[in-house]
User: Fold this.
Amino acid sequence: MSMNGAQSSAFQAAAGFSPSVSYTLFVGVALAATFLWAAWSIYSCYRGWATGNLDRSIAATSVTRVLVLCMILMFFVLS
Assistant:
């Protein structure tokens, strides 16, 4: 669903920026939060594996799941 000209100009007058800028901001924040979470998750798996508290197969499975989740989210958000 897209905005018509009157809706777009009303949004820009009320918000002070265009709808495309708000969409870009939303996508940027969503991807940044996802990548920060993914980095924390992968680092935590590595720490667990390095200290011997986490089995290698479980750590590899967890990292694979995180990466697949990031790719799926990027597909949905960027398409």
